[in-house]
Amino acid sequence: MFSLGQFRITSKSPNQNNNTPSVPTHLYQDDDEIYPTEVDQYNGVYGAMPVVDNSMLIEPSPTIKEVLLNFESEGDTFVLVPGLFGFNTLEIPLPGGKSWVVNDYWSDVKDIIEDPFISSPSPLGSIHDRAVELYYQIKGGQVDYGLQHSHQFCHNQSGTTYEGFMPLWNPDNPIVLIGKGYGATTALYLQHLLSTNFFGQHTSGRMIKAVITFSAPHRGSTLPYWLGLEAGSKCIVDPFSLLQLFLSFIHIICYFACWEQLFSLQLNDKWNLRSRKEGGEQSIWSAISARSRFAYFGDNFLVDWSVEGARMRYAGEEKDKHHLDPDCVYINYITTGSSWRSKVTGHYWPRLTWRNLPTSIISKFLGQYKMTTDVEQHVLRTSSSTFWENDGTLSILSQQPPPNQRVQMNIVITEKLFDPVDHELTPGAWYNVYVEDRSNTVLFDKPFFINLSLIEGMMENSTFKRIGEFLSYNSDHFEHYYIHLMEFFERQLCGLGSRLTIKGCESSVADIEYVTSVSNSYMINATTDRVERRTSDKAGEEWCRRISTIELMNSPSRMLYYINSIQKLNAAVENGVVGSQDLIPLKDAASFIPSVQESLVLKFSVRLVEI
């Protein structure tokens, strides 16, 4: 491994990953449920990529044809599925019939895909209800949630009637689903309903050509528990919590019909949450206290968003599990690099960047949310610390595909060239794409903040431009002081707690002991780099190398550039000239030509020893 920042070269043993310490599985595994050793391996070594079990890999078959997505106007049909509180555009009406677009949820995807269909399932509904609504929005007809499902959760069986975006939707005319967050799991569940013929129209999983997910809660999130959901109850909410306050707000909106139309929560069709004067079932008191079938029966976003709800989709009965379709392409974008790990407590803190500002508070609490031992054993089935590293609102572990689904390869994307959506892919398994910088992706290259028209207008001002350039130029210095300041306060608090035997700090000390016992290598080999840097697995590296070779062979100018760079580096190594400008081409150029890479690295390492 070659490090530009520290000028070091190390070799990696082929059997290095086999020495991963494991956590006893009996601490969090039930006899009737399979929980992956992948979690143990991810939990055991800080900074390691999730190790893919060989039994879960798909071997390329000569009969399987690779699939290429077509973004042209006459190409594939794309359907966009928003997440929680998802929308198309947020507009404010202005005098004269005009409107001001405050934010466009899909502006990044719209830059690549011409005229996609933007769906609008219930922002707060369950995954089942949202998937059913998504189906009828595409196919057309009156929404039918299913007789058994409606009776089980006591809501209306029928819903809104849609004309249908694609009435001729069938296996010979498939679509591509793109989901963000909660919308990603909705898209996957729709394919599950299609494959089990839930709609009774001879549907098939082949009606979906590809599923592209971004920051998806495949394995659930601990955020609902922090907000007030009682762990182990699935749908009981603490009456003195933020979540209870939010549910009351939702019920009050639905109580007044005019407000419900403004916010478009789409709950009254199923639950009749309007006031009794308007034909609903709510009194003003039940609205304020959030007492309704929507809140009590568990057919809502709280259950499916939690770790328990996610586990029911991959560790329940066989008929309820979603299995990947062998003819469908799956791409999973995992957002990383938004938090850093403290060397004092092992907690995660949000990074000091402007794109993390909207979610910094949530990220801070998620990065150190400690649940009781009993909850860890029976609900999380692992330690709380495995959910600490997050992207602002969702942990990195939560974004891993379900354990019962196969993974083709793990790719750490460093430039748009390696984004899988632009290449032919093998169907039937996940392509895990780790994303630290969204600008390296093809479809999701804009952070949420940049979509705000107010921010765009401010950045056009010369004063704000200079401030932005100053902050960007000095961001490393600011983050350096910020990290050491937070760790200083942590040391003081832990020291004060040990002297005064404060219970709150005893829990912090316990966290430190737990982290060191699970991952001794991290505490012993701690470096100044507190942000986890991932690398592609073997299959991902080979795939990236193949893409690089094809790109290099098809570009004579690029080939000439790298040949000149290698010659220049050879001369620099022979003459003992070592500088930062020479190191950059070494990393890029030599990586494309393995034979040259080996000789250059050997010469360069010998030269460093001499110096």
UniProtKB/TrEMBL annotation:
What Gene Ontology terms for biological process does this UniProt record contain?
A: lipid metabolic process
Q: Does the keyword Hydrolase apply?
A: yes
Molecular-function annotations in GO? hydrolase activity
Q: What Gene3D superfamilies does the database record attribute to this sequence? A: alpha/beta hydrolase
Against Pfam families, the record matches this protein to: Lip_C
Provide the Lipase-like C-terminal domain boundaries: 108-195
What's the superkingdom here? Eukaryota
Return the protein name.
19951_t:CDS:1
Task: Say which species the protein is native to.
Answer: Funneliformis geosporum
